[in-house]
Design brief:
Layout (H helix, E strand, L loop, with lengths): L2 H15 L10 E4 L3 E8 L10 H34 L2 E8 L2 E4 L13 H12 L6 H15 L1 H20 L4
Parallel strand pairs: 2-3
Antiparallel strand pairs: 1-2, 3-4
Length: about 170
Amino acid sequence: MTSSETGGEIRGWFAGRLPEAWFEGAPEVVLDREEVSVVGRLPEPRAASGVSDGERAGALSGHIHRFREDTRDQRIAIAREAEHRFGLKVSWGAECGDLREMFTTLSVPVMTRLRQPERRVLDTLVEAGVARSRSDALAWCVRLVGKNTDEWLSELRTALEYVERARAAGPTA
């Protein structure tokens, strides 16, 4: 089974397994080699309408927090089922209005080899107080690249899906 087929199966499983009343529409299900992130959109509470920006932000945050607490036991049970079935950890989050909060996420160590110029970049970020460590500095750099190249990365991921489909349709060795 290709990773795109696995991704489709996992997204379908969550769409069928999650209570329909939880989210507006299907949740966003994103996966990599270690983790499945499930983020659903919550309806905006009435308390967020016609109020100041501060009150709106508080209402949205409170609504997400209430959802997190009210669904905790069910989310844990669903995550255990998914982890057993797919062998991946499950992270949860919610969106409400323009606010997005992740409840749980994995922090996975990644080994890399860097030459002196790259290490100096990381050390400069640490010395400037932008990051606490080289590890934090590297994570900061990755987030910055991701933020500034979202469209390009999206096109690359789409191209990889086509490559996987072509491989799957080709002759078997």
